[in-house]
Amino acid sequence: MDRKKFAQIKPLSQNLQYFAELDSTNVTAKEFAEKGAAEGTVIQAGKQLSGKGRLGRVWESQAGKGLWFSMILRPTVAAEYGAQITLLTAVAVARILQLLTNKNFAIKWPNDILLDGKKICGILSEMALDVEGDIDYTIVGIGININMSSEDFGAQLAATATSLYLATGIEYEREQVLRAFLDEFGRLYSHWQLHGFDDIRRSWLQYSCTLGHKVVVKDNDEEIYSGVAEDMDDYGSLLVRNAAGEIGSFDFGEISIRSC
Ligand code: BT5
Q: pLDDT tens across 173-187, in order?
């Protein structure tokens, strides 16, 4: 154990700031981070007017039914490991949802949490580097569907999305889920900074519904590679073997999977 490193890593404090309505908690968290907000600041909104997914997509975030929040993190790891934060966040979400509901959740690389093949949570991580190329801050935005009924989702999302309520028939307190998540995330985040990615990777692999499946890798909606997802490497990149037997490594973009 590196004692100096151990001394530098403090438990993640939880400074929660709640807003009834925001455009996007990621955007507000970014503004806070730029003004120097401390690591552990959490921006939560009751409702988002323009909740963001990746690549400019929309995240439906209606009032009162879901958990929409963003954490400001200032990790001490090198920027090349920064993408691992999304994977460790996915593990923390899957663990606490499993604990609360006793259902089996799956992670689809890199950022979707699924229940019975439907999306219950999405994660949007955005990293800002300083002039030296180190991580200045990372915003991790998380949306978890808590108490939506099928009507709340509307025709399009009803086919692809689910909520804790739909899965269990139980209405959950959003704050209870948030507190459970922040506690679990804090533990994993300290572990990651002290001991690296190994344990998180192992845990991620247990939840993965991606490995062993045929995947199509897309960059900005354009297909760039296809094959079978074989493994995740030590950086968190997905390794995909194509028909010619070559391995491609992907730490960006999006994968689409036929069965998950
Ligand atoms: C994501 O994008 O899954 C990342 C979503 C992150 C949302 C959080 S909420 C708090 C924070 N503040 C923000 O502004 N964002 C973050 P992506 O993989 O691109 O998936 C987007 C797609 O998911 C959409 O195109 C829809 O198909 C679907 N979708 C939208 N809203 C959904 C919902 N509430 N539940 C399930 N699926 C949804």
A: 999 999 999 999 999
Q: Residues of 95-127 as b/e, b for ≥16 C-beta within 10 angstroms?
A: bbbeebbeeebbbbbbbbbbbeebbbbbbbbbb
**How many angstroms does the Cα of residue 59 sit away from the middle of ligand 1?**
4
Preceding omega of 110 cis (within 30 degrees of 0): yes
Q: What is the pLDDT of residues 123-171, one digit of tens each?
A: 999 999 999 999 999 999 999 999 999 999 988 899 999 999 999 999 9
pLDDT tens string 201-259:
999 999 999 999 999 988 877 889 999 999 999 889 999 999 999 999 998 767 777 65
- Assigned fold of 6-207: BirA Bifunctional Protein; domain 2 (3.30.930)
Buried b (16+ CB within 10 A) or exposed e, 22-51: bebbbbbbbebbeeebebbbbbbbbbbeeb
Task: Write the CA distances from 179 to 100, 160, 213, 223, integer angstroms.
Answer: 12, 27, 34, 39
Q: Give the gyration radius of the chain's Cα atoms.
A: 18
Q: How far is the CA of 120 from the centre of ligand 1 (A)?
A: 9
Atom of ligand 1 nearest to the CA of 143: 9
The CATH number of 214-258, from 1.10.760.10, 2.30.30.100, 3.30.1490.20, 2.60.40.1180, is: 2.30.30.100
Checking if the pLDDT of 196 tops 60, the result is yes
Which of the listed residues 47, 59, 120, 166 should we mutate to test ligand 1's pocket, taking the one with most ligand atoms within 8 A of CB? 59
pLDDT category at 3 given cuts 50, 70, 90 is low
